[in-house]
Structures are given as structure tokens and as C-alpha cells.
Amino acid sequence: MIAVLLGDLDNSDGQGKVYFRHDSTPNILGRAADHIRQGFPDGKVEKPTNTFIVTWENMAAQGTSGRGDQLDTKRITFQLVVAYTASSAWAILLYPRSGLQFLYTSIGGERKLLESCFNEGLVGWFWKKQGLYFNITSDDEASISQLTKKTNAARSGVWVYKIGSSPFFVEIQPGKVTSSPENEGVTEPPVTMLPTQTADHVGVDFLTYTTQGIKTAGTVPEEKHEQPSETPSSFQTGYPETVTPGNATLKTQEPHFVESDTIAPVPTSTGTIQRIYPTEQHETETRYTTSETLQPRHTTPTPSEPRYTTEKPGLQQRHVPAPPRSAPQHPQIVVVDEDLDVNVFAYNLETCAHNRHKCSAFADCRDHSRGYCCHCRPGYYGNGKDCVAEGKPQRMNGKVNGQVFVGNLPSPITLTNNDLHSYVVANDGRAYVAISNIPASVGPSLQLLSSLGGVIGWAFALEQPGYENGFSLIGGVFSRQAEVVFQPGNERLTIKQEFKGIDEHDHLVMSTDLDGRLPAVPLGSAIQIKPYKEIHQYSRNFIISSSSCNYTITSPDGDVQTRSYQWRQSIIFQTCPYDEAGWAGATLTTQQLSVDQIFVMFDANNHLIRYAMSNKIGPIHSSLLEQNPCFSGRHGCDINAVCTPGEGVRFSCECTAGFAGDGRYCHDIDECRETPSVCGPNAVCSNQPGSLRCECSAGFVFASDGKTCVEENRPVDHCQRGSHDCDVPQRALCRYTGGSAYICSCLPGFEGNGRGCRDVDECQQQDRCHAEASCSNTQGSFTCQCRPGFHGDGFHCSPTFTEREKTRCEQQRASAVADSDVPFSFRPRPTVGRYVPRCDERGAYEPTQCHQSIGQCWCVDANGQEVPNTRTGPHSSPPLCIDQAVTPAPIGPTPRPDVQPIAPGAYLLFAQSGKIEHVPLDGYIMRREEAKPLLHVPDRVVIAVAYDCVEKMVYWTDITGPAISKASLTGGDIVPVVTKELQSPEGIAIDHVARLLFWTDSTRDTIEVSKLDGSHRRVLFDTDLVNPRPIITNPAYGRLYWADWNRDGPKIEMSNMDGTERVVLVKDNLALPNGLTFDYENQQLCWADAGTRKVECMDPHRQLRRNIIEGIQYPFALVSFGRNLYYTDWRREAVVAVDRHLGKETEEFLPQKRSRLYGITTTATQCPQVYNYCADNGGCSHLCLPRLGGLSCRCPDATDGQCEEKVL
């Protein structure tokens, strides 16, 4: 065995990869020979005849990866080459020159140093024992770190060893040249030969690497993952490696290595690789995904933060767990769409055979000596990955964001996701841009910013002979930054724009961000911008330009001012690095963009800003105007036609590809109708203006060629399909466990293996019914009935002649009515002015008590004692009081045991995929043996849970509906609460006093409120939110708290429940604040952070912050109960208890079915005794929203017009 790096490494998250192959190409054999000669320069080295190459790419230390939110994970890429000559074998070990990102891994709970060694393995015929070791490194940490800095083959990070030709473990000879040009005079690390190990020595357990697909990332809005490009392939590993599969954080750590040996790795088809299927499904991102049709569209990689999502284009991540009761299957190996930046023997994957689908559908792929390039076909132009038809009008869509100061105003105007739409008539260079929802406070000043759309004009400018516009040179993927300075006020503004390629609708996608100050322009002023010229200077991947422009402002009173502004801009893009002929723009070192016919206008009525301009790209210093109409734009061709110049002023018009006509008039060709089979089998054709779009039919996906639709090898939910072999639904439950696996289990009241279930006669078991009751068996259940002379529900039977002893309330009531002022009245009557308590049918105090004579009402506890600060005066509505009485045993028909209401007491409720479980609490101790599912919601992913202590209802969100639902703990059906206009509801909170429901939606980026039944819905916040997740209420103060785990700026915020007084409470030393809870008794806000791995609390009033516990693993949700905090942990798949006073974990509960746990809450025995001004809806017509010291009456977003808003 050869261990390049021996440790507990992890590749299960899809980022880490293991590739290997045999290679006998001359280039590889030559490089191997060079390394051997450099290590052994004093002897003759035979040329290798074959090599075996293994690459470990982006490997993480076990236990540091697997987080869907992509926290920082340190990774290592390294390689082994075994070279074979006619008489010997050689091992070449290659390490990253920039150093190892980590030196230790955890093995058996202990921190172990990485090793590098050769091992004879197990030896012996009858008594197996470990053979000889040849250690390259020692127990010294420095010897590991120096693997990348030192050498024995004249090159840092390269180590060569002669293994020999003997099949026995005889000798290992290290290379002899321990200095390199970059590191002279370095000696090799110590090498030791260890004796045979004794039988009692315990070695490291070796498992097999599981190769999983990684995604080809693409540029999509808001940092979403692009869908993968898959290439099926299969291999068999030749030796074991140390790994324990687990979850991993998806953040690629790119080591910096020498580029000369860098080519992306490729798995080949020699041999077989077998995936080890884990017993449980492990998801690798915090978004929930379903499948989406793969589109063959080129994009640019962008890192991403996962969220919980439902279906979205370009956002897919899939596991392939083992089918039920079947052998492991061959996986699909996903191609890596980037160079492996390491100083190693590389796998050349950069060929058209593997990458044709990355070229435009209107481009050809050409192989070059070092890789492939895409080239647009005749009649199209672009960079090969984005190609558009010559003469065809182009459309652009995007969003505008930013903060713009106007004049001397101290506060900026915020633009948030304002829609931008652009249309370009390509055959004459006219560009039109419109931005919507522009406030009147900034609209007039934005008229000066015609340069915002200037880059669009440059991209599709009318080309003069021998010159090319931006899209012809660099395509549709680039970044642009412009700095604009306005004179004479020296106002400055920055424009940042990202162009993200062409989407499936053939529209160029872009985003714009503005930051800075604009001169103030009075509303109603007319702006006239003079024509200008802009010089562009080109280099391989960089373009710079600068210009100045004069403009006039004509105010509404006729005053005219002439001003100017200057700007400089840079454009960054990526050309194909493999084209030996060079980039097409290399010969065009400078070009001039001429812009005229500039029109700007702010439409105050429709809140629109409009720009229009005519653009030409051509030479510098040319005073001669092109007379041919094709170059002047005055040709009269249809907008969907190409103008072809002739001699002099002659020209012709020809409809562009996808259109037909005489060139003066062109109409769209319906390719789908004219050629029905154009998309091939198992595909659907959709006509587009000038083109068509092929989509695979349901159940099919695009193959690696981007054209052929092949059947999708997706997991099958046999439970949903009905193709399982479980017993009938009346006796058994089929539970989907991921992939194509499922579990059959008998329902309560039946026994068996799930595929065959028989009824259990519960009446044969002791103490099922009361001693004075008879038991009757039913299918799956039983009934109890009290015998004659007794009454009750069968579980509790009492003699019918026994009179119940009066309760305290009944005794107090009897005493109050004992004295009657009407001696001969048939019924006792209380003395006038005396208070008489009201008792319910069970004899308990009603929660609301009133004194009719004085017209006052108040709340009482279970003992009849008045709750302070609840008394209301005459002519006021009675207070909404919480029933403090203990719920008695149920009376009536005997429920089935599996749906019997849970007994009174405190419970933990937590979500686990498609169910909600409950664990009884005995004080602060979890009674784990009594835990069981409370509610099954098949095919749903339940995220957040909350509990209404008044109606004893549990509320939850699920992101697969998506929906917010509720169910009673006392039994009953699931009741939908909110089912519309939801995308990814991940947090939920309840104000049990004001009867309000709050939730966060991390896809809509909103915080909303409604009544508990889902009515009167209103958006509280829809700005400055990126990834809102947990949310919690403080009814006593009318406060709302939530956390946003935006990785660029995580924060915890607070506001009143009416949306006023929004402030950031915590923003420092946060990373991933997933869980949030509030302790009413101690007024403490606590949170669990999966990034800092801490639980912290603070007093939000005084903002005093303190650590509770550190070093936790991956918390998701958090709830407070007394002195304890309970959190769910994704990594441990457990519920963990933390004593806040002791600052340590006290207990852990592992559910029977191991999978990720989500939201958690408690069911208290009684509601917290807190009140606010909205206890009786505060006299509001619709929404009563509490705030500190008062309330606000607010209208829902959809109102009937009969709503009144006011602040009290």
C-alpha cells in the first residue's frame, strides 16, 4: 500500500473527488521519466512503458465538511503516479506547493497527524499481522508540512521512490536530489523502516472511497448552483483509502500551484468503480431541491450559499442512495468544468468530446493542442459560448440595486431589484433601455446616467468595416465597472454591472449596482445629452475606456444650464485560452465608439426612466463617414434582417436566421411546425422568435451532447407510486427513506413485518380498561365500556351513585349564594353587590371572572386568584384570559391508541423531514423511551414548528408545498393556514396573546404577519433581507426578533410587531445564526450559530451579551425551556440539551430514524402570563399589531376598502 497522505479524509460532499487511470501516452511517460531522472541523476533510467495515476482533489478532513450553508472548509489536492519500466516500478508523490491546508484529522475521536508511508499490508498464511512500514514522515508536525516545501527529486513538493521489481516488500529507495532551484540546500525528511507490528497493535480501519458527482457551477441570480453536466463512467479502485463518509461544507479551497502541468482530471472507462451507499441519506445543502430539466447553456462559475428552496432552474443537487434490497449500482461520474490548478500529472478533459454542450447551439467546437474552443458558425457572432444571429434584435433583462444620494440630501435613495429591460436593433445600432419603479426623488437625476445603458450600446454597436462590437469580441459574460464624475459639483457615482450570458429565452441577463451621488435635477426638467465618442483599449481579458460628455438642463421655468461629466470604465472577461491563433480582438488594440441621437426622459406618472441612443464602433481619427447605408444605419431593412454592403452605396437586405421574407419585411419561421422532429425523440419543441427551444419530456434529461434526451435515472418513491410490497394501507404504513428505498411497518394495533400485518387483540393484555369496564377488540384497536352501575369513558369508571365532591370554586360559589334576601324564593340568590365566582362544567374557575355590580372583569389562575394588571373597567371588553385549569382526562368515545391525545405536560416537538415527533419532559430530562411521532406529513419537508398554548395547536412550515399548516394536539385533521404566495417559508412564530402568526420566506426575502387562521395577511419587511430564517416574538413588549444568515453580513434584528423601530441588535462575530429563541422569564434572547459553533444569549434591552457554550457542531433550531436550551443538530442528527447556568451540554436524544432534524419548540403546561394591548384585537377592524407601549391598527395587503389604520 502507498499512502500519499494517510488520515481520515472526506469526499462525500460532492466537492472532493478521487480519479484514477492507466496512461501510456508519450507526454505522460516523458514527464514521469523526467521526474525519475531528476530524483536519480547518477544512473541510467529506463523510459516508463505505462503509468497508473491517482488524483485526490479537494479532500477535506473528516468532520469539517458537509454544511449546506458552505462554511469555510480547508481542502487538499494531491497525486500519486506509479510508473512502470521494463525492470522496475517507481512511485512519484506530488504535493501542493502552497502548503497543506490542514495537518491533522480526527480518528476515533482523537486528533491524529497525517502520515506519508509505504506499507507491506497484512502478511502471513494462517496468522495475519501487519507487515513492514516504510515511513516518509515522522511524528513531527514539521515533517508533514515540509512535504510541500522539500523534495528528493529536485523540485519542491515532488518525491520519487524506486519500489523495485520484486513482489515482496524488500526495499524502497528514495530519490537523491534534495535541493531545488527555489529551495537550495534542503534535506529530505527522515525515512525509517519499522519492524513488523505485533498482533495486539490496532491499525486504522480502511474503507473505500465513494466517488460522487460535483456540480458544474454557473452564473445565476443570487448565487444559485448551476445544474450538472453528467458523463456516465465506471471504475474499480485498486486499493483502499482511509475515509469515513460524512457531510461536507461546499466551499472549494483552491491551492495555488504551478500552471504548466495543469489540466483538468478525467475519469476514464477502464475498470469499474463501485459506490458505497450510506445507510442513511445525507443532504449536502440547506436548500431543498427537486429535479429540473437540464438546459445546454454556457454560464460562468459563481460560488453560492445555499438556502432551503423548491424547484428552481439551475439549482439542483442530487444524491443516489441504494435502491431497496438491491446491490449497489454504478454511479454517474460528473465532469469537472474547471482546470485542476495543481503541479501534477493532469487528466486532459478539455476536449470537445466532453464539452461540446458548453458551446452555443449555433457554434462549432474545435479541439486545440491544449484544450477546446467554441466558434460561432457563419451567420452568427459572439464568443462561441454565446452566439446570436447577425442582424437579429437583442433583448436584455436585469435588476438594478443600490443607494444613490441626490444633491446635498443626507440620506440616500435605495433602489431594490428595480426591473431593467433593454432592446437593441442590431442592424442599425439603436439601443433602448427602461428601468421601472423609479422614485420621483431620484428619477430626474438618473436622466444624467445614460452611461448606465452605454455598455449595452457598445455590446451591439453598428460595426464599421474591419471593426467589431463588444458582443462579437467577448460574448455575453463579462463584468463592467464605471466611475462617473459630474462637474462642477464633483459628484461621484460607481456603476457595477455583471453580464451573465444568454438565458433559455435568448435574453441577455445582467445586473446593475449603483453607489454614489448625483447632481440634483428639478422635477420636470428636460435633459439634452450631446453626442460623444469613447476610446476603447483592448487586451487579452481586459478592456478600458474613458470619455467626457456635455449636457444641458432646461428647468421648468426655462432656465438653461450647461454641464459635463467624465467617466472611465473597465470591462473584465475571459477568452478561450487554447486558441493558438489568438483572440480575435488582439489585432484591435483600440476602437472608437461613437454615440449620438441620445434621448433621456423620466416618466413621473409611470415611474420609468428611459434612455435611447445610436451606437457605432469603428476606427479612431477617421473623419470620413461611411456612405454605405449598411454602415450608416440608413438602409431601411427589416429589424430582423442583415444589411449586406455592396459597391459604393449599394446594399442588400436579407432576413436573419429563423426569419423569412424579402429583407424589407421578415416574418418568424415556426421551425417546430416545419420540422416536427427537429428536437429528436423524447423532446418537446417550442418556437421562439428566430429560433426554437428543445426541452426534454418529463422523465428525460439531456445527455452530455446537450441535444439527445435520455431517460433520467432518478430515484423512485415507491410509496407514492404505489409500487411497494407493504400490506394494505388499513394495516401498514409505507415510509419513503430516500433514493428508491422504503420501509414497511405495521400500524398501531397490528403486528408483523410490514408486508404482512395481523390484528393485535389488545383485550388479552392487562389493564387496558378500567377494572369495572369490559374490553372489546376491534381491527387495529379496541373499545372500553363501563359496566352497569358505573359511568365514565371505560378507562375511568365511577359508581353512578357516588356524588362528586365539590371543587373550591363550587364551594366558594355556594357560600356566596347561601345568604338570600328573599326568604321564600325557590332558588338561592346572592346578596346585592356581592361577587359570585363563575365555575365551568367541571367545577374549575372560568379564566375570566366578572363582578356585575361594579362592571369589572379580570383574569384568574387555576386557584381563582386574580392575575395582576388584568382588571378592566366598566363598559370595557372583558380581557382575553388564559385557561389555567389542568386539562382533565378525555371523556367520550375511546380514540385509537395511535391518535390518542397526548397527556398533559411539557413536551419537546421537533421536525424531522416528513413528520413531527414529540418527547415528554420530566422536569428538564427528556423521557427518550417515550418519544414517538406526533404527526406524519408524507412527502413534505417540515422546517419550522411553533406552538399555540391557548388552543393547543402546533403550527409548521413546509417548503415542498410550500405551505403553513396546523393541527391540534388533542387530535383532528391537518388544517391549511397559508398556501398561496409562499416560496420557502423557513421560520414561524406566534403571539399567543394578540393571536398573530409571523413567518419568514428566505426566497421571497420577506417577513409577513397574519391572523392565526391565515387571514389579513400583510408584508412587514421586504427590504434588506437576504436569508431570513428563524423568527421569534416577545408578546409582553410587542417585539419581533429574527436572524438573517447572509454570509456577507449575518445579523440579528429587532422591531416592533407593527414593523416600526427596526434595528440591528447583533452583527459582530456572527456567521450562521440558524436558531433563535426568547426566554420570557429572564428576558433573554438566545441564538445558536452554526458558523461560530456557539450558543449565545443577550439582554435585548441592555444589549448585554454572553457565551453559553462553544464547540458545538451544526445547530439548526433552538428553543428555551426554564434553565435549559434545546437545539437540533444536523451533524449529530440529535436533540441536544444545554444547561445555561452551567454552560454545558447535559443530554442528547437520538431519534430511532436518523436523519436531519429541523425546527424545535416546546408545549408548556400553561401559557406564559404575559399580556399586550392587542389581547382583544385592540378595537382594530383588521390587524392589531402590538408595539412597545401601544398598538397599531393595520390593514392587510389585500383589503376590501373597509379597513382603518391608526396608531394607539
Beginning-to-end CA distance, first to last residue: 78 Å
Mean pLDDT equals 77
Number of strands: 80
- Overall, the morphology is globular
Helicity level? under 10%
CATH topology of the domain at 907-1165 and 1172-1194: Neuraminidase
C-alpha-based Rg, rounded: 37 Å
- What fraction of the residues are assigned to beta strands by DSSP? 35-45%
**Main sheet record:** 11 strands, mixed, barrel
Question: Looking at this structure, what is the CATH superfamily of the domain at 907-1165 and 1172-1194?
Answer: TolB, C-terminal domain
CATH architecture of the domain at 907-1165 and 1172-1194: 6 Propeller
CATH class of the domain at 907-1165 and 1172-1194: Mainly Beta
- Given as residue ranges, the uncertain stretches (5+ residues, pLDDT < 50) are 66-71, 185-347, 820-827, 882-900
> Helical region count?
10
Structural class: mainly beta
- Strands of the biggest beta sheet: in what spatial order? 22-23-24-34-33-30-31-32-26-27-28
